[in-house]
Amino acid sequence: MEKTNQPLSAREIFGRNLRRARRLKDVSQEELALRADLSRTYVSEVERGVRNVSIDNMGLLSQALGVPLRDLVDPAMFKILDDSSE
């Protein structure tokens, strides 16, 4: 993914926030996938912003991590940990 000054899409925001939340909770992609009854490949694609995730799967992933869905779609959430913006 190229760096541009364009705002992130909702899919990219969700993916980045999902990855940050997962790492903060020290959960592997494999464990998250098992908890959400999804494949690890799917979780990886969602986190990288290449998979267009459904609202149902967004709910499964947020529940599996114990993080409110609203936090995972909030562009400002986890912003302090954004190491790729500068």
TrEMBL record:
InterPro entries: Cro/C1-type_HTH (IPR001387), Lambda_DNA-bd_dom_sf (IPR010982), TransReg_Diox_bact_type (IPR050807). SUPFAM superfamilies: lambda repressor-like DNA-binding domains (SSF47413). Keywords: DNA-binding, Transcription, Transcription regulation. One of its GO terms (molecular function) is DNA-binding transcription factor activity. Residues 18-72 form the HTH cro/C1-type domain. The keyword DNA-binding applies. GO terms for cellular component: cytosol. It comes from the Bacteria. This is Helix-turn-helix domain-containing protein. It comes from Duganella flavida.
